[in-house]
Amino acid sequence: EAQVTQNPRYLITVTGKKLTVTCSQNMNHEYMSWYRQDPGLGLRQIYYSMNVEVTDKGDVPEGYKVSRKEKRNFPLILESPSPNQTSLYFCASSQGVDQPQHFGDGTRLSIL
Amino acid sequence: QKEVEQNSGPLSVPEGAIASLNCTYSDRGSQSFFWYRQYSGKSPELIMFIYSNGDKEDGRFTAQLNKASQYVSLLIRDSQPSDSATYLCAVRFPYNTDKLIFGTGTRLQVFP
To answer: Is residue B49 a contact partner of residue B33, using CB atoms and an 8 Å limit?
Structure first.
């Protein structure tokens, strides 16, 4: 089954404790992206990647890191999480930026 | 001006009616346009995508694109209570980036 898998689905943690949200897709997609979704602000792109070893900033990259060492994986790293990063996060993938995106089920992060 | 604007709603329509959802965007050079549906607490799922001026139909859904006026709309015919969700418009902005910008979404309520 074609899918984008994110882990964990839920996480409550404390300020400053490094965390990683994993994202994996099994569709051999070139383009992968991370979004955060906040009430009233919609989906905002954090980082995206056009291919292996190619990443670029979206609209809200501050406080986040990503890497794309393999085509299928695109982890999101919060080196020193802060409460303003409490949000619902989605990973997505597609054949290209002009193609429809497939979304993972989301990760709800709470930073205390 | 927001890059992609949608009326937040809610848009309330009776079962069986046509629901009309609108989206305007700021960059005249935008090329790719997407409509996603998102149920509360779930991930966005693709409804339609459109690249060329005019109408594109898929079942009960019709996407309409007018690049001169910089708007894209989604019509839902024979609306059903199961169509009640938030509808997100997404636009690929071309200014030498590969970013995808989402509107904040329109909440649709279809009442029996």
So the answer is: yes
Q: Is the pLDDT of residue B10 over 80?
A: yes
> Phi first, then psi: what are they for A84, rounded to 5°?
-75, 0
What is the Cα–Cα distance from B104 to B6, expressed in whole angstroms?
6
Residues 6+ apart with CB under 8 A from B80: B15, B110
Cβ distance of B49 and A100 shorter than 8 Å: yes
Query: B62-96, pLDDT tens digit by residue?
Result: 999 999 999 999 999 999 999 999 999 999 877 65
Tokens of B80: 């059903």
Query: Residues A43-96: pLDDT tens digits?
Result: 999 999 999 999 999 989 999 999 999 999 999 999 999 999 999 999 999 998
User: Encoding tokens for residue B56?
Assistant: 């594109």
Of A35, A56, A98, the CB nearest to B92: A98
> Across the interface, do A43 and B102 touch by the CB < 8 Å criterion?
yes
Sorting pLDDT into bands at 50, 70 and 90, what band is A99?
confident
Specify the pairing of strand A42-51 against strand A102-103. unpaired
pLDDT at A40: 85
Q: What is the CA radius of gyration of chain A?
A: 13
Matching residue, tokens 């979206």: A58
* Phi, psi values for residue A66, rounded to 5°: -140, 165
Interface test with B, best of A27, A35, A37 (most B CBs within 10 A): A37
A84 three-class SS: helix
